[in-house]
Structure formats: C-alpha cells, structure tokens
Amino acid sequence: MKYPLAWLVAWCTLSLPLHTVVGGDDGKLVAYDDDVRILDISHRYHPEMPEWESEGGIGQFLWQVSRIKNGSMANSSLMKLPTHTGTHVDAPGHFYDHYFYASFDVDSLDLHVLNGPALLIDVPRHSNITAQVMKSLNIPRSVNRVLFRTLNTDRRLMFKKECDLSYVGFTVDGAKWLVDNTDIKLVGIDYLSVAAYDHLVGSHLVFLKDREIIPVEALKLDDIPAGLYTVHCLPPRLSGAEGSPIRCILIE
Ligand SMILES: *[C@@H]1O[C@H](CO)[C@@H](O)[C@H](O)[C@H]1NC(C)=O
Ligand SMILES: *[C@@H]1O[C@H](CO)[C@@H](O)[C@H](O)[C@H]1NC(C)=O
Ligand SMILES: *[C@@H]1O[C@H](CO)[C@@H](O)[C@H](O)[C@H]1NC(C)=O
C-alpha cells in the first residue's frame, strides 16, 4: 500500500463533513459540499421502470456472471439494456439513416451542449408543447439549454411500469418554433420521448435535422424549483449507438 493508514484516517476525517449525504433515491438533494449542491435528475435503473411501448417494464437487465460465494475472486455482472431506456440521450442517427451510417452516434455528441447553464421551466399543463405554448414561455434568445417540466412529472409516469403513450411532448409545430425562434440546443424532457406520440417521427426529424440539438429524455425533475442551474450530462462513449443512457445532474 502506497499510503499509510494514518493518512487514510486523516483523509476520511477531513472529507466526511464535506460530503454529508442528505437525500438519495427519494430525496433530490444528493450531496452537500460547502456551497455546492448537486441535484440528481437521472432515474434509477430497476426492472420495473417503463420500457418504450411495453406493459411489463424493462425486466431483468443484470446477470451475475461470477460470484464470490461460488469461489470467484470478485462479483461481476453482464448488463443488457435498450439504449433508449430511463434517462437517456438521442443521437442524430436515431431518426436519420444517413446520419447513422455517417457515424453520428452518441460518441459524436458535443459535450459543450450537454454541459453548461440550463433553465428548468414549467410548461402549461393543459397541452402538449405546441408553437403557441413555446411562444408563451418567452424563453430569451441567449438560452441554450432548457429542461421542460410537464404534466409527465405530475403524473409520475416514469415511476409506472406500464409505458403510457398519452405523455406530453413536442408537436411538430412546437419543435419547429423552437428551432426557428430560440437558441436552445439541449432539449430536456421528463418522459421517454421529446416528441408527443402523435408526432413521434416528425418532431424528432425537426430536432435532429441539423445535428445541433440534443434531446435528453426521461429526466427526473420532481421537486426541483424552476430556475437557472448548471447542467452536466455525460453519455458513455458507445460507438455505433444512436442513443444511450446518460447521467445528468444539476448544480445550483
Ligand atoms: C453459483 O453457484 C450456483 C450453485 O452451483 C449456481 O446455480 C449459480 O448459477 C452460480 N452463479 C454464478 C453467477 O456463478
Ligand atoms: C457478491 O454478490 C452476492 C450476491 O450473489 C452478494 O450477496 C454479495 O454481497 C456480493 N459481494 C460483494 C463484495 O459485493
Ligand atoms: C398530448 O398528446 C398525446 C398524443 O400524442 C395525447 O394523448 C395527450 O392527451 C396530449 N396531452 C395533453 C395534455 O394535451
């Protein structure tokens, strides 16, 4: 061991008060580090989380392949998960075949878009996100990242095993209005698709067309005050994947 025990004890003693765990899965506030507050806006992966167009949830997604109890040196598991499960990101190849073959996969996504100042806003609950709704939100031109909290959060759709296709998302004219009238590049939403189900293909095509906008879907926006934060979203570098689970946090 490189470091003596005394050093380890000193490190633990010093670092503990700085990392008091306040919340966790149910709480939203994960860590308190002096004046830095980290808010976790990613959903926890578990077998009963909803899977797109399915009734039964994602089901088993982890298989243990070696087990200490069975004499192995370590526990180790295999993971199998649809790429658009839980909190996840879409790459241009998701809806454009030529982008898929041109390797515009999740590894091509711009980390500058996925990290930086972000506005969390509440969308009127009576409607999908149409051009009229977008206009009414009065989002200033200089805003590049917006997390749209909708009726989906109120209905706790991400906590239900059955996929619910009556979720709220962007209509085609809402998506077009965003592209034409705002500088938004990161579009965050609180259910599995950024596009309303009746506008599934059309809205995705509008958002992904110029490879500038990155949809981040199924964000966990419960109980966080609307306002300005710094968002950090990091997708794993999956070559050839048109989507991927992503870990997102907000810093206050
Ligand atoms: C561990 O051993 C049990 C009993 O032999 C077996 O059923 C199980 O599949 C083993 N699991 C792993 C992960 O090796
Ligand atoms: C290894 O996996 C078993 C379940 O098979 C679990 O009970 C045990 O706590 C694990 N050990 C470690 C060190 O994680
Ligand atoms: C949003 O659109 C979906 C169909 O895409 C519909 O089922 C749902 O009722 C709409 N929601 C609202 C609040 O209008």
UniProtKB/TrEMBL annotation:
Matches recorded under InterPro entries: KFase/CYL, KFase_sf
Keyword terms of this UniProt record: Extracellular matrix, Secreted, Signal
4Fe-4S recorded as keyword: no
Domain of life: Eukaryota
Localisation: Secreted, Extracellular space, Extracellular matrix
Residues spanning the signal sequence: 1-23
Family that this chain belongs to: Belongs to the Cyclase 1 superfamily.
Protein name: Cyclase-like protein 2
